Amino acid sequence: MMQKPKKIFLDSRNANFANGMYTFTLTSAINIYNYISLQCFQCLNNFWNVQSSSSWIDVSYNGSTTSVQFPLGNWAIDDLVTELQTLLQTVNSGFTVTYVSATSQLQFQNSNGNFHFLFGTGPNKANSMWCQLGFLQQDTTSTNNLFAPNVPSLNGPEYLYIRIDDIGDCPVKSSQPSYDSTFVIPFSLTKGSVETWNCNTSFPQITYLASPELNLTTIELSFYTNIQNVGFSNYQFYGYPFLVVFEYQ
C-alpha cells in the first residue's frame, strides 16, 4: 500500500556545507516511491554583484601587469566608480573612471599613458570583473581613453535554482509535469529582503520518480543562479540560513 504524503523540513543550520553542496543527514531513512515536491522555501536575498569569482582586474601599464581585486559586495554604480578609480590609481596615479549616464558606459582614462585590461589573458582571467564593467571576456586594446562597449552588469539574478543532487533526473510519469530534480524560486525583491516561495500561492513544482529511491539517508542540495552575460554560478548564502520544506510519497 502506498504511504501517505510526508514532509521534510530542512534548516541550513543543520546541514554540512562543502564544495557548494548542503548535505542534510536525516534522522531516519526514508523511501520515496512516487514523487518529491517543493512546498516552501525561504531565504535572505543577499546576492552580491561582485563575488570572489568575478572581482579581479589585471591591468597592463608601462610594460608590466598589476592585478587588483575589487571589494566583494553589492555595489551601486556611483560607489563602484569611486572605488574603481581608487583601485586603479594604485596602479598609476593618472587613472580616472567616469560613468557616462547618457550612454550607460564606463570610461577609463589615464593621463600618464596607455594601458589595457587583460580580461582574456591575465593571471586572474578566470575570476575577472569583465562583465560587471561592461566588457567582453577578452583583452582590450592599448589606449589612454577606453570606453566599455556594454552596459555594466550589476543586476542580481531573477531566479534561484535548487537541485536535489542525490536524486537523479526523473522523466515525466503518466501525463503529469516533471521538473526533473531542479526547482525554481523567482527572486522578486531587493537585496536584504526575505524571499519566500510557497506552493499554495505559486505554481506546483513536482519531481515524479521513474523508480523508487529507497533507504535515502541524506538530502543533498545545491543552489545556483543564471545571470545575463555571466552564466550559471553557485549561489552564496554567506552564512545566512535558509529553510526548505519538501513533500514526498
Written description of the protein model:
It is a single chain. The chain has 249 residues and is mainly beta. It has two helices and 17 strands. The strands form four sheets. Strands 2, 3, 11, 12, 15 and 16 form a six-stranded antiparallel β-sheet that branches. The protein starts with 5 loop residues before the first strand and ends with a strand. 24% of the residues are buried. The mean pLDDT is 89.
Set down the secondary structure blueprint.
Layout: E1 6-11, E2 16-18, E3 21-32, E4 35-44, E5 56-61, E6 64-69, H1 77-88, E7 95-100, E8 105-110, E9 115-117, H2 130-133, E10 145-147, E11 159-164, E12 182-186, E13 194-198, E14 206-208, E15 213-227, E16 231-234, E17 242-248
Antiparallel strand pairs: 1-17, 2-3, 3-15, 4-13, 4-14, 4-17, 5-6, 5-9, 7-8, 8-10, 11-12, 11-15, 15-16
CATH topology of the largest domain: Jelly Rolls
- What helical percentage do the residues reach? under 10%
CATH class of the largest domain: Mainly Beta
Our Rg estimate from Cα atoms comes to: 23 Å
Reading the helices and strands in chain order gives EEEEEEHEEEHEEEEEEEE
Globally, the shape reads: elongated
Q: How much β-strand is present in the residues?
A: 35-45%
Q: What quaternary form is this?
A: single chain
The total number of structural domains is 2
Q: Note the total helix count.
A: 2
The count of strands amounts to: 17
Low-confidence stretches: none
Head-to-tail CA distance between termini = 11 Å
Computed structural class: mainly beta
Q: Please give the CATH architecture of the largest domain.
A: Sandwich
Mean pLDDT: 89
Q: How many strands, what sense, and barrel or not for the largest sheet?
A: 6 strands, antiparallel
